[in-house]
Amino acid sequence: MSQESYLGYTPRTPVFVRARSGQITEGVFLGGHRCKHDPAGDMFVRCTSRCCAAKPWVLKDEGGSVYNTTGFEGHGGQPQTKKAYKSIRVRQPPGSTPADISLREWKELASRERYTEQLVGSRIRVFWPKMRRFYPGMVASFSKRDGRHRIEYADGDTEYLYLAAEQFEFGWTVDEDRSQPLPGGRSDIGQRPSQPSAGVPSRRTAKATSAARDAAKQLRKLMRVDAAKTALPLAAKVENDVCQQQRGCGPEQTTGPPPNRPSEQQTDPNAATAKPPLRCVFAASNGRWKAKMVGMGANGETVWEELGRFDTEEEAAACYDAAMRAQDRERSRKRKLNFNEDSDGEPAASELPPGARSRPNPGVAATMHGGSAGPPIPAAQDLYLGMDFGTSGARAAVINGSCTQVAEARQSYAVNTTEEWERALWLLLEDLPAEVRAHTAAIAIAGTTTTCILTDARSGRPLAPAKLYSEAQAEEYVRLAAAIAPANHSATASISSLCKLLCWAHDPAFEQACSTAVVLSHADWMASLLHGRLDTTDAHNAVRLGYDAEQETFPAWLTSQPFAGLLPRRVVPPGHPVACVTPQTAERAGLPASCMVCAGTTDSVAAFMAAGVEQVGHAVTSLGSTLAIDLLSATRVDSAANGVTSYRLGRAWLVDGGSNTGGAVLRRYFNAQELEHLSRRIDPRQPSGMDYYPLLDPGQRFPICDPHLLPRMTPKPDDDVQFLQGLLEGIANIEAESFHMLATLGASPVLKVHTAGGGARNQAWTTIRQAAVGVPVVASLQAEAAFGAALLAQTWKRT
């Protein structure tokens, strides 16, 4: 084959395809991606859609629009992914079986038919659109099984490609040193240098650069809102000082060292749009650690204030934590409440570690408890209300535009019924100061995962008792779900919302009622009491109904079923505006008529958002009545057998699992005072010797989904301290098993665990958990799911 030859072909007849978006194209000419010397060697799509014709990359001619396969797949939503290749169907010639195949299958066939072993040993250069350049290498081998070629690049990097789908050329490259040809056969492929010669592009370097760029982009767009406005800030990276930060608040604030500190101005290019962290612990160049706080300079600029330098990271973190605690106590003593900015209280110098200087931290929120009176609120001050309806009670949190919590309220209920939830909703609103309610611009609600209510679609009246989050359905409904859903889909678990819907749909007692009913999640039904709409759910609560978070729609295997009328007709992202409160709600609760009710989320996702976690590999464990684990992962993981569900969170995935173990087991044996007293006597360095699996009743949801799993809490020692330690160790082991299982399924490995819920205050338990999990375990700065729901309400105003 000559040095300047290339591969490509031009078929004679068009083949019709169907795009994922449902738009029908006129035809497609099948070929390789565009070759440099032959524009006709690309795959072209002729599309009559006006929206396609308006795209800047479209070539207008012949009465329609023609553009290449890269643009066509991009228009489908997910270019160059398995999902995209499967979503575009290529219609086969008449009489063929099957009638059509996916674009991915066609490419595999094309590779096997046209690009075979004859290419092995050929020198090649492959074009990568993301890097906008060719990379030299050689075809090392060919797999008949899947039709892919193994490409060895000049720097030793390896790729497996369908050459029918790539833009490439054979022969010498422009940048190659022709006096040093690449090996010509398989035997000496491994003799290439680890780095290419000067002037030759390195694919390995390009991949590392691309990965770093993608990681930064993923953080910037984690919540799909502008980085300068998002409630989840970027991680500010410094060349010599790596910031270990948590949440930053206040859209008007920006990170960066003060002008008079030139040695610390080598910030990341994205730092200008990030927000200052509340906790700043830096690795100094001399091996020591320093603690800093962010404040405002005399002219309103953001400045770094160093608290001190220490030998270990733990000492620096303790310095910061001590400063925070001292400042909080001082603020509580002064009782200064302000809706626009924080108190200027100064922490007591005696409470800081040696060598640390006190400095007020502007990021700490002053809290006004429900019912207490506050100062007048400025007329332009918008507030955002989040409510969380959990297993044993409901909470409300109100924040202002700077993410500062200005009010809160709590209500408990003895039983989980719709009547108790509705009563708690109105009492929560009544407990908030009237001035706070009058300035509430938006509301969002979080509810327990998979709790469902069969609701009359016209009146909103519940037609049956609610099916709770932990309520496993009969085996027959699990089999029905498994028969229609993909294998191991999270909607096929016995506690899934889909199984509960099937139970109602196949119950003769509800046959007539189901003709005018809709199944709502816990959060949906609570929100309907405020805005009156019964047709909308959020994308997180819809996942356990079978909603496809990647395609952002209910799949055909679900919508084609006779019970599809029970599904909500509208699915929107969490935080998306749904409707304003009804006039009756506005009058009863003292809310503005313009108050917007936004789509909510699950309680565990809301707790994750409240913790301010933004890095892949970081997790939030909620230690409440039950144990909930949420891990931010770069990959999606779903497993009905393990009770695992993934929710889309920007460009990452929030992998979620909820166990039936937790604080409810502890409360069966000990009250709050006993738990506190006995926990102080536990020595976590000495194991209890107990092998417990703490559950209230038979049945587990996560890390294994087994409705018949029996608890194991015997033998019970006479010493209550040893018994409590055994229970805490048992719950910690379940948590550790959960993270191990998630990693086995393909999720990002856990790097750090943030703790929310009442269990976060138990220091002995924290030490036990850290030993079991094997990574740092810290308390979340914000532990309430209601705070996370308030952040969701605030995103509506920001977008």
Automatic annotation (TrEMBL):
Entries under Gene3D superfamilies matching the protein: 2.30.30.140, 3.30.420.40, AP2/ERF domain
Keyword DNA-binding: yes
GO molecular function, one term: D-xylulokinase activity
Start and end residues of each stretch annotated as Disordered: 174-215, 245-277, 330-372
AP2/ERF domain segment(s): 277-340
SUPFAM superfamilies cross-referenced by the UniProt entry: Actin-like ATPase domain, DNA-binding domain
Biased composition (Polar residues): 245-255
A single Gene Ontology CC term: cytosol
Similarity field: Belongs to the FGGY kinase family.
PANTHER family: D-RIBULOSE KINASE, SUGAR KINASE
Record-given protein name: AP2/ERF domain-containing protein
Source organism (scientific name): [Myrmecia] bisecta
